[in-house]
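Kindly review this record before class:
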Amino acid sequence: MEQLLLHLRNLGFTEMESKIMVELATKGQASGYEVAKQLGVSRSNVYAALQRLTQQGYVRCGEGEPARYSVLEPEELATMISGRVQASLAYMENEMPRGGPVSPSFYNVEGDRNVMGELVRQLNLAGQEVVVDVWREEASHLRSELEQAELRGVRLLWAFDGGNNVPAPYPAWPPLGGKPRRNGGRKFSFVIDRSWCMLGMRYDDGTAQAVVTEHPVLVELLLNHFTQEMVLFELEQDMGAELEERYGDRYSRIYNKYVMHEQEPEEEEQADLKAE
């Protein structure tokens, strides 16, 4: 019931209107007094909402005293709402003023539903290219949109992490100052048509955070990062044995020397003694 009310509100109905429509659909038909009594709200509010719904065509008012109301069948209701929404969207798209250029900005998206919703919208708008750097868990949620983009002729460039046991191809920078790192997160990035990008983190508990922007600096950084990952991967595939033979353990240390690992407490104490 709560989910139905939520979706009705998402379609533009007020909470009162949503409850009245569900009540009428459950009873078949009822008077305003009966609806108000069942919902435990004032009759004036119910009659005002019924009048709006009747004028809009979602509810029918029968003859008689007292008047009895009924809501359209779900199929009729869906058709009417869909037609009006599509007409409003078309009008908005054609008539909305188009201003001057807007400086690129960054904005945050919080929550798994909002993050995935934003990605779905942008993937459906992709016209030329999508660059994807995700874990397989996240890619599976967007499989349909990515497949549809490819069917439209959009070029897809992929980079996947396969699971928690797969080592990252680059060193992980530890937090500084003793700040704890939140575990269980999987980074992801999308660059669409080389003009829009999202960089974020999705956690095992279902929460997610992301930054979205059209700023060319971050777009270019993500594209360069993707390119470097792919080049490094192919080099390791082609020359893995040779690199191991030539560099040995030094190969991994080439990466690690650029990451300032936090000192253990014992190491910090020894360093302080040496300084004295």
